Amino acid sequence: MDQIPLCVPEVGPEETKLVMDCMANGWLARGGPFVKDFEHVLAEKLDASNVIACSSGTAALHVALQVAGIRPGDEVIVPALTFIAPANAVRYVGATPVFVDVDPLYWQLNPDCVQACIDQRYQLDREHNLLHNKVTGAPLKALLPVHLLGHPCDLDALISIAQRFNLMLIEDAAESLGAEYRERPVGKPYHIACLSFNGNKVITTGAGGALVTDCGNWAADARRLIDQGREPGMSGVYSRLGYNYRMPSLNAAVGCGQLSRLAEHVDKKRAIMYHYDGLLKDIPGLKRQGQALWALSTFWLYTVLIDENEFGMDSRSLARGLSSRGIETRPFWQPMHLSPTHRADQTEECPVAEELWRQGISLPSSVGLTEEQQDAVVEAIRAMGRKG
Ligand SMILES: *Cc1c(COP(=O)(O)O)cnc(C)c1O
């Protein structure tokens, strides 16, 4: 029986040609045009002034937090429902992630919950317009929303909160390149946005990421940080503690090929969504992630909620059943406030994230997925659901 994977990369002759070119010229690590080209094309697509390619999306987040001036003891608001990388990055700089609940329709960081958390947890220093933790005095420095599963979060509402309280806005757009928020591309930064090109993302460089910002000073700072703190030019001076977070040329060569297919990949993800929608609509107890009126979602991973009573089986049993039929799925990530890595000092309640975690399951969503494979996935789901 053929396996149907969750989400695998789609590469073609263009990528092969670019990689061969890269190898033939000895540009595996540094050198050659590919990193610059990749950054340039991405900057154009995002209508942004600076793109800094990095070795991973997590590295981009780590550097973004440093560039934004987040320091040990600061607090940063992060959605409770997310892949763990942004919460880890907050901890890398010694800051504390404060997890806030998501909304039940689109599953994104809920601006009303952010406001409620601010009202409850912080007091306002009116003179400097800064928020401080009522108990510990720790300052709230940033919002780190995640554009989850290809759907943008409600940026305008979050920007207005960030403006009101002098907060940095660092967007984790790793899962949502190609999406649009009110006709603006996701990843076009308000302050700083971060992207990932890991193998399962909408386009890939094998491994890789990028930091995007319109601020020249932040961009220069980020360029130093990803290169061991090295000053530009030939001075041999390393002016601050940095990292080895550069994107190798070889990976950028793959990325240049992939970027030319971004729109095609997004169209394919949306076609996958329409086909699943049609097939799944008469199966009781299934509900997918909604798409807001102000959003164009890429449906990076087509994800459904399983109502155990209506469907006749819970999401984990369904995942096991599909797995035994060679169909790879993935449950939602455990909410961050429950995670053994991060739960320590959480005080906010996040009931929506917990319910989504129980019910959520992502279905196969590779760009190369065929309609026949989708039909097979849905037949298997139908066979396991409540019999009529
Ligand atoms: C994939 C992902 C990342 C980080 O990506 P890497 O490139 O694997 O480090 C960060 N945040 C989210 C939400 C992701 O899905």
Structural class of the helices, strands and pairings? Answer: alpha+beta
Largest sheet: 9 strands, mixed
Q: What is the overall number of helices?
A: 13
Percent in strands: 15-25%
Q: Please trace the helix and strand order, writing H or E for each element.
A: HHEHEHEHEEEHEEEEEHHHEEEHHEHEH
Share of helix among residues?
A: 25-40%
Count all strands and give the number. 16
Shape: globular
* Distance, first to last CA: 28 Å
Low-confidence stretches: none
Bound molecules: pyridoxal-5'-phosphate
The overall pLDDT average reads: 96
Characterise the protein shown here.
This protein has 388 residues and is an alpha+beta fold. The protein has helices at residues 13-24, 34-46, 57-67, 85-92, 111-121, 155-164, 216-225, 249-259, 262-280, 308-311, 315-324, 351-359, 371-384, and strands spanning 50-54, 75-79, 96-100, 122-125, 130-133, 139-143, 168-172, 180-181, 184-185, 192-196, 209-213, 286-288, 295-296, 303-306, 330-331, 360-362. The strands form three sheets. Strands 1, 2, 3, 4, 5, 6, 7, 10 and 11 form a nine-stranded mixed beta sheet that branches. A four-stranded antiparallel beta sheet has the order 12-14-16-15. A three-stranded antiparallel beta sheet has the order 9-8-13, with no helix packed on it. α2 (34-46) packs parallel to α8, α3 (57-67) packs across α4 (85-92) and α3 crosses α7 (216-225). It is globular. The two termini are 28 Å apart.
